[in-house]
Amino acid sequence: MMNTALHEQAWSNPLLRKLDSIADISDEEKQAILDLPAAVKVCEADVDIVREGECSTDCVLILNGFVCRYKIMPDGRRQIMGFYILGDIPDLQSLHLHVMDNSLVALVRSSIALIPRKSLRDMLRRHPDLSDVLWRDTLIETAMVREWLIGLGRRSAYQRIAHLLCELHVRLRAVGLARENGCELPITQTEFADALGLSTVHVNRVLQDLRRDGLIVLRGSMLEIPDWRALQDAGEFDPAYLHLKR
Amino acid sequence: MMNTALHEQAWSNPLLRKLDSIADISDEEKQAILDLPAAVKVCEADVDIVREGECSTDCVLILNGFVCRYKIMPDGRRQIMGFYILGDIPDLQSLHLHVMDNSLVALVRSSIALIPRKSLRDMLRRHPDLSDVLWRDTLIETAMVREWLIGLGRRSAYQRIAHLLCELHVRLRAVGLARENGCELPITQTEFADALGLSTVHVNRVLQDLRRDGLIVLRGSMLEIPDWRALQDAGEFDPAYLHLKR
DNA sequence: CGTACGATTGAGAGACTTCAACAAACGTGG
DNA sequence: CCACGTTTGTTGAAGTCTCTCAATCGTACG
User: Fold this and answer.
1) pLDDT tens-digit profile of A28-39?
2) How far, in Å, CA of B96 to CA of A133, rounded?
3) Which nucleotide is at minimal CA–C1' distance from A158?
4) How far is the CA of B189 from the C1' of C21 (A)?
5) What angle do CA B53, A164, A105 make, to 5 degrees?
6) Is A154 on the interface with B (CB under 8 A)?
7) Where are the domains of chain A?
8) Which of A112, A126, A130, B59 is the most exposed, having the fewest neighbouring CB atoms within 10 Å of its CB?
């Protein structure tokens, strides 16, 4: 039976909200998470949160905004490898991999919580079940990267964009940040291009195709999806790899 | 100080050999790994080890041979997402993700050890440090997938192939399966194509370019790398993402 | 009201694909 | 040990998806 006050607090805590979408957490474990020390920090758009080569002592938890993981190639081009939203802990990997092999940047003004790595480790030692949940979370992230890989390897630009839009929409919904038929998506065409291995010119043209086909309505950062099923089919999107509870 | 008999055994145990390359393991932990129950099984070439949608009760450890992870697209094309060799536990994800979202197949006759998931879990509960090491291993795999992603997104076919050859060679060396200037690589051009998001025709032509440029000598499944540094430069290969100890 | 960044458009080029055929290598059975 | 079929590797030619370059347009913001 769930404690009501705790339940209130739990929903307002982004990490709990997210973990709740991928696993069952006991009240005791919820309390342990709420008890974690955290320093809140606001990052302006285009400011790096963690840089390649660094070894940070804190883990980053996204409270709001939009963050992405990227790497710069020797020739200056950029590859984006993941988008992160409320509740995500993008550098959970720093718990066990001490030197970052990629960077994190805020796409828009975002607030993040910095949790001392040591506090997190100690807490996970006391709650091995929670440790498993976070491990599970990192495995889900791997599954997302793999699905992304499939797109870059075997899907057309049209499919790739449709697929990414589906994924982002589903993830935003899972943490309560999207309506059934749309969401806010503060991602520029340049960022789509860097994420999907395309040029901005091509992204622009394919987005027009998607609009022309009535699959999306994209004005500024507002995305509308008139026919979800159609977009899903266009992107060959199957949410199984996200391993959500429902 | 290390127990000599244990040391002997450790080197002959593929899992220990591999974990040893990414972390420091205590004698007690080594013994715990050696005590794991395991059923050895031989898989013929092109036989699936785990299939998408399944929920296996065992974890797969590769004892020898060559295994890859793949997914089939609706149109029948295949994307390979990873290669696995001695010591790898490709479906460690099944510890926490109960339904497989991709498949594993043996590329050549391979032997694998099946470790009951429950035994592994119980052992990890008794040795939280080992749990962290395996978690670390899955995080390294994520890093490999990300690097692969970068290749598909931003590297030319020529670079991609060079990069993959470098990675495989380094990983084979880490577990003692490669000479300094070459190794055995039982991967067909079709498999390279499916792994790198290319057509077999193009793989064939680019391999010829690599040969012409003196970067590789590839006869059958024997790979020679006359000038490692040159191949590394061609593929923009930086082993940092493998997070090896030395 | 200028400036800057993102979105859009046109035209030409290039990397990679597809189709199709053929050669070489390999394992297997007679 | 050779014949044979199957798999893997190789080659040519035509096509296409996507890129690069370069210019223009819109809009938010100081």
Assistant:
1) 999 999 999 999
2) 8
3) D17
4) 19
5) 115
6) yes
7) 4-141, 155-242
8) A126
Q: Could you tell me which CATH number the domain at A4-141 has?
A: 2.60.120.10
- Sheet holding A48-50: strands in order across? A48-50, A103-106, A67-72, A78-84
DSSP structural state of residue B1: -
Beta strands B78-84 and B67-72, pairing class: antiparallel
What distance in Å separates the CA atoms of residue A151 and residue A199, rounded to the nearest whole number?
A: 15
Q: A192: closest CA among A220, A174, A165?
A: A165
pLDDT digits (tens, 9 = 90+) for B99-136: 999 999 999 999 999 999 999 999 999 999 999 999 99
- Hey, what CATH topology would domain B142-242 get? Arc Repressor Mutant, subunit A (1.10.10)
Entry field: residues in chain B: 246
Query: What is the CATH architecture of A155-242?
Result: Orthogonal Bundle (1.10)
Looking at the C1' of nucleotide D12, which residue has the nearest alpha carbon?
A: B201
**From residues 185-214 of A, which are strand D contacts by CB within 7 A?**
197-199, 201-202, 206
Structure-block tokens of residue B11? 């080197």
Query: What is B36-126's CATH number, 3.40.50.10860, 3.20.20.70, 2.60.120.10, 3.30.230.10?
Result: 2.60.120.10
CB contact under 8 Å between B197 and A71, yes or no, is no
Round to whole Å and give the CA distance between B134 and B234.
32
How many contacts, defined by CB atoms under 8 Å, are there between A and B?
Answer: 114
Residues of chain B with pLDDT under 70: 1-11
Instruction: Tell me which of A59, A91, A96, A120 to substitute to probe the interface with B (most B C-beta atoms closer than 10 Å).
Output: A96
SS (H, E, C) chain A: CCCHHHHHHHHHCHHHHHHHHHCCCCHHHHHHHHCCCCEEEEECCCCEEECCCCCCCEEEEEEECCEEEEEECCCCCEEEEEEECCCCCCCHHHHCCCCCCCEEEECCCEEEEEEEHHHHHHHHHHCHHHHHHHHHHHHHHHHHHHHHHHHHHHCCHHHHHHHHHHHHHHHHHHCCCEECCEEECCCCHHHHHHHHCCCHHHHHHHHHHHHHCCCCEEECCEEECCCHHHHHHHCCCCHHHHCCCC
- State pLDDT tens for residues B54-63: 988 999 999 9
Supply the pTM of this predicted model: 0.94
